[in-house]
Amino acid sequence: MLSRVAETLYWMSRYVERTENVARLINVNNMLIMDLPKGVSSGWAPLIDIIGVREEYQKNHKDFSEQSALRYLLAGDNNHSSILNSISSARENARTIRDVLPKCIWEGINSLYYYVKDNKNEGLTKRGRFNYLKHIIESAQMIFGALDGTINHDDGYVFIRFGSIIERADMTSRILDVRSATLITSEEAKPYDNIQWMSLLRSLSAYQMYRQQMSVRIQRKDVIEFIMHSEVFPRSILFCLYELKDLIEPLVNSPQVIELIDEASDDLKHSDVRVLRNGELHDYIDQLQIKLAGIHNALAESYFLK
């Protein structure tokens, strides 16, 4: 396989995954605001922080009002991680390699792009927002489902899966970092502490699986343990690292990438994340994100920069 094609498949997949993740974040945050009393919610600023664009956002915005933040998250021109820019990037990558993709995949990505673009104003309205974001999430999941069921499970499939999984691990770490740091802990908000942790789980579609594996009760240390250490939940960071290793191991030139994945997963598995408080948790996740970036760079050096 040409390195150009491998890299394009990798980024196409990452951008589709990012489209879904940002849509899910907005949807869950919208429901959290409705669940909490007026004045208790942390608002929309945490979402800007999760996708790492606060500095760019503040260049053109004076506050984090609902409409300003939503416009930026849905279709901000200078926000490379907005839903519209993410699916646009996925579409452009898919367009250049249409000859190696099943027709239904190109059609699915192209259709989702036009839906996002033509209906973005629906996402700004309280009435239309939920259905707009739900359609985006379901369409992205259908694209990945169609990929799994229609494309050859060869080297190209490895790069597709690797892209989606490393994007997922990165987003999981960002959500945990920012959401745990911005939990409202005032006396007024204390009765709603469980709702805030529940929202974090729902950001990852993890609520039911958490209850199944951990317990019915929502507790901070258990949520962190589940999201970081679960070996059976597909959005936990450790599960993602194991999946990355399983994907890349059969390929030639993989030892450098495998070494970095092993280093990250071994450190995570043997760390007692349950005792990490906010500052410690933030520092730990920072180091984890650096390791994920290192895995990406090693992958690029081994397979894309040829």
Characterization of the model:
The protein is mostly helical and 306 residues long. The chain has two domains: 1-151, no CATH class; 153-306, no CATH class. Helices cover 71% and strands 0% of the residues. It has helices at 3-35, 45-50, 54-60, 66-75, 83-96, 103-118, 129-150, 155-181, 193-203, 207-213, 220-229, 237-248, 255-269, 278-304. Helix 1 (3-35) packs antiparallel against helix 7 (129-150). The longest helix has 33 residues, at 3-35.
Q: What is the makeup of the main sheet?
A: none
Tally of separate helices? 14
Mean of pLDDT: 92
Strand content: under 5%
Shape call = globular
User: How many distinct domains?
Assistant: 2
Query: By helix and strand content, what is the structural category?
Result: mainly alpha
Uncertain stretches: none
Please trace the helix and strand order, writing H or E for each element: HHHHHHHHHHHHHH
What is the number of strand segments? Answer: 0
Percent range of helical residues: over 70%
The separation of the N and C termini measures 12 Å
Q: Roughly how many Å is the radius of gyration?
A: 19 Å
Question: How is the secondary structure organized here?
Answer:
Blueprint: H1 3-35, H2 45-50, H3 54-60, H4 66-75, H5 83-96, H6 103-118, H7 129-150, H8 155-181, H9 193-203, H10 207-213, H11 220-229, H12 237-248, H13 255-269, H14 278-304
Helix pairs in contact: 1-5, 1-7, 1-8, 1-9, 5-6, 6-7, 8-9, 8-12, 8-14, 12-13, 13-14
